[in-house]
From TrEMBL:
Primary localization: cytoplasm
HAMAP family tied to this protein: 16SrRNA_methyltr_A (MF_00607)
Compartments where found: Cytoplasm
Protein name: Ribosomal RNA small subunit methyltransferase A
EC class name: transferase
Keywords: Cytoplasm, Methyltransferase, RNA-binding, rRNA processing, S-adenosyl-L-methionine, Transferase
Length: 263
């Protein structure tokens, strides 16, 4: 029996078989992989993922969905359902509890809290092998945007400094019940290895990026005033009159490194 989607949870249940198969194929779970699904809903992705991986964990906030999910999964494999807000789940500890070094994360994320979930996962990236998420297409475009793009911003920079961002394919509204008012897209995130990660204090990098994009129309000399002076910006071969959207992720790291050396 189909569950009634709840607006309060931002629920849009994926139902179209060809897109389900395409997502599962993109994830390509294997027996022995430890897959964690965020927001399994009615189990459209859960069951085929579980059939391949044999064992997996799902994080679900809606208690009404959990009994049916457990019942459908019982004949397929070993499913552990955690009733929790995903933003409060410690993925690093979860990997330890499951006895693995790396988790594989997947999910059709609620669009209204997709960015907080992404940043939460990035905070635990060292315990994650890869992530496959269904998101609003506009968000995926922002995640993968390059410098100079109109949608390049804080989300683009912070994610690209932590992960390789790989947009996979789009999913139309009709693939969901009820259909959302926007197009969706599936994206793969692969956390960078320790030697690929930026050399610098993450908190200072975040502070510089947040300040630089706080007022998109203003120049760096204005947005970074009080953090980094014009002479220091210029010493990095960065024009203080430039806007944040023209800088590469690496440029923000270099700016943060000067902030660190000064402070």
């Amino acid at each position: 029996m189909n569950a009634r989607p709840k607006k309060s949870f931002g629920q849009h249940f994926l139902h179209e078989k060809r897109y389900i198969e395409r997502i599962v194929s993109s994830i390509s779970p294997r027996d022995g992989d430890v897959v964690v699904e965020i927001g399994p809903g009615e189990g459209a992705l859960t069951l085929p993922l579980l059939a391949a991986a044999k064992r997996m964990t799902a994080i679900e906030l809606d208690t009404d969905l959990i009994p049916g999910l457990r019942e459908r999964a019982a004949a397929v494999g070993e499913l552990t359902v955690i009733h929790a807000d995903v933003l409060k789940v410690d993925f690093t500890q979860l990997a330890r509890d499951l006895g693995v070094e790396k988790l594989r994360i997947a999910g059709n994320l609620p669009y209204y809290i997709s960015s907080p979930i992404l940043f939460h996962c990035v905070d635990h990236a060292a315990a994650i092998a890869d992530m496959h998420f269904m998101l609003q297409k506009e968000v995926v475009d922002r995640m993968a945007a390059e410098p100079g793009s109109k949608v390049y911003g804080r989300l683009s920079v912070m994610l690209q400094l932590a992960c390789k961002v790989i947009p996979l394919f789009n999913v139309p509204p009709g693939a969901f019940r009820p259909p959302p008012k926007v197009d969706s897209a599936v994206v793969r995130l692969v956390p960078l290895t320790p030697d690929q990660l930026p050399k610098g204090d993450p908190a200072k990098i975040h502070a510089v990026v947040k300040a630089a994009f706080a007022m998109r129309r203003k120049t760096l000399s204005n947005t970074l005033k009080g953090l980094i002076d014009e002479a220091t910006i210029r010493s990095l071969d960065i024009d203080p009159r430039a806007r944040a959207e023209t800088l590469s992720p690496g440029d923000f790291v270099r700016l943060a490194q000067t902030l660190a050396s000064a402070g």
